[in-house]
Amino acid sequence: MKIKHFILISVLGFMAFSIASCEKKAKDLPCPDESIPYTVETVEKVVPADTVNGIPEYTILEKTQVDLAAFPKDKEGNIILFCGKSLYGWRGYNQDVVPGRWTIDETEGAIKFSGTGTGEGQQGDGGDLIFAHKFKNFELSIDWKVSKGANSGILYLAQEIKDQPIYISSPESQVLDNENHPDAKLGVDGNRQSTSLYDMIPAKPQNAKPAGEWNTTKIMVYKGTVVHYQNGEAVLEYHLWTPQWTELLQASKFSLEKWPLAFALLNNVGDENNEGYFGLQDHGDDVWFKNIKIKILD
Which of 51, 177, 270, 281 has the fewest beta carbons closer than 10 A? Predict the structure, then answer.
């Protein structure tokens, strides 16, 4: 009997050591070389109105991109964009600095957004966070967890449009507490649940873990084909620059009739000549992101 107890204690001890080792490994990722200078300069490009289609004039902000040479790679060739200790290379969407509500949670080794609990109605020190480099064909992997009832998103192929939200030009992979946030029951067929293409294609199977637990979302973009993965399973696929994509937009809140500028920008998103930012959404709720890495597929 004592021998059995010893074996059980040993196994439990080994499991605890293994878990601790994994946590330490996740927090000990190599950090960027911050000796490579990164300063933000902005050029504004005004796009005239399209009166035929009812598209208003808008301004694109072209800001300095961070040098990817500053960021380490893992053995699989993924560029590590967040090491758990530094926000070098990150800034607010339409901003030159990191908004104050985005901080590093050292215990989790994660980027944390601290919300006010007022959803989109919050003000001050917030805004969406972007990694300051544009990508074209890529595989992005990111771990996330939310507080109870929280809402956020992972956006990609975004342009910076002055005085407009990031999602006006960017597809969104939903980040959500499916059990407690009402958005999970809105939309069509679950297309606002986690890792869905927001308001367009539902993620199926819907295998998200509950609030307080870590999920992994992977987004692959390659020559117009886009695939979302959640917790190791492919959950949706769609194709940019196609009639299918235009039909999806027309059936959503981003239709030409409902939101002409969003329709125009999203209908051209991911054009073979374009690159875009990926970002993390401020939706006013507490949310965490870690193990953020990207593989360029060009």
Answer: 51
Report the amino acid identity of residue 258. K
Q: Which two tokens stand for residue 144?
A: 């996330």
Rounded Cα–Cα distance for residues 287 and 290 (Å): 11
Q: Can you give the residue range of the structural domain that contains 75? A: 70-296
Tens digits of residue pLDDT in 156-211: 999 999 999 999 999 999 999 999 999 999 999 999 999 999 999 999 999 999 99
Q: How many angstroms separate the first and last alpha carbons of the chain? A: 60
To which residue do tokens 């970002």 refer?
Answer: 279
3-state secondary structure of 17: helix
Could you tell me the pTM of the whole model? 0.89
Task: Kindly report each contact of residues 214-218 with a partner whose C-beta sits within 8 Å and lies 24 or more positions away, as own/partner.
Answer: 214/143, 214/144, 214/145, 215/143, 215/144, 215/145, 216/141, 216/142, 216/143, 216/144, 216/291, 217/141, 217/142, 217/143, 217/144, 217/154, 217/173, 217/175, 218/139, 218/140, 218/141, 218/142
How many domains is the chain partitioned into structurally? 1
What is the CATH classification number for the domain harbouring 81?
2.60.120.560
Q: What is the number of alpha carbons within 13 Å of residue 107 lying toward its C-beta?
A: 2
Reference 70, options 87, 55, 88; nearest CA is: 88
